[in-house]
Amino acid sequence: MIIFAVAMPPLINGQTVANSKVVEEVRNSKIKFIVYDIGPGTWLGLFYHLLRVFRILRAICGIFGFYYKREKFSVYYVYESGLGYLYNLILVSVARFLSAEKIYMHHHTSEHTLRKSKRFDFLKRAAGMRLHNIFLSCKMANNVRDLYDDGVSYSILENYSIVSRPENLSVSWCGGKIVIGYISNITYEKGFSQVLEVFSSLRKNRINFELRIAGPYKSDKIGRELKYLSEEFFDQFFYYGPIYGAEKEKFYSDCDILLFPSRYKYEAQPLVVLESLAHGKPCISSDAGYCREILDNIKGLPVVPVENYTSDTVKIIKQICASPDAYFDVATQCHERFIYMLKRSKINMSELLDEFSNI
After folding, report:
1. By the 8 A CB rule, do 319 and 326 touch?
2. Amino acid 303: pLDDT
3. What is the domain-level CATH number for residue 134?
4. Same domain (yes/no): 115, 10
5. What's the whole-number mean pLDDT along residues 6-35?
6. What is the per-residue pLDDT across 217-236, written as a single tens digit (0 to 9) for each?
7. Is the same domain home to 200 and 264?
């Protein structure tokens, strides 16, 4: 029995999408499991933590239930940054105390993998020999092994397997106007300021382009900026709001180039970059998290330091869009990279299911 104590939709982010995919694959494999949603849903502020505490307690009660019925069980959860670490510590302590067969820790943040973290080190020791890590890439696994200098039991499960492939793929650009896209939870940490700087610089360079932005925002200041720019540059700056499903697919299909100038310190393997590759769209990314590992093999699409993002991005756009042939070459590499990694990710998923089956 696998006990999933994880955040699930309706809250939509990379972590909940990945959790849903793993649960779906486990269900299809007929492995026994139960899910305890420990996420906050769409609540904010005080209710966020009250709901989380309630759901954590419910998950703990569920774990106790299997223990008292003397059923073998393992616990699966996601490593969290910030205050979420306390919830991790509670779950791990309970799972170990009640003799869980395995404690699966899925890593969706680089907080503790790109630099040593005393908190993760303590959590790892609290889990003991029962811990089995699930990393997003070989590089992440190697980083952890090097930083913490000990044997690590782990599987690899890259995010490629949770990205849907478009039905109608086009990797061509006919010349003329360049459609540039930015889709994200819109925050300054996720690079909103850099996007505006790129917009301004492209205008100064008299590039024939338009900028399309999609995603939710929480900051009133960002809301005012989006409203002002949409009205002031009504033929060149477009804000679509939060988009999902078919609208999101169309957004990617209609864009020629995507921007991902994230400064988020816990960035790992962002879905936006992977979704861009799936659609055969060049994504100009900062070097946050493991973005370099994703894009390093694509010629003509370098990963850029966030401090040089504006100037480097303008140069890259000029190079990629120097001609339809130049664009086609980079876009084709993007899609081929995704297909290769998707195949590898499916093998990873199969190996993880085997790991679950062998408990």
Report:
1. yes
2. 94
3. 3.40.50
4. yes
5. 89
6. 989 999 999 999 999 999 99
7. yes
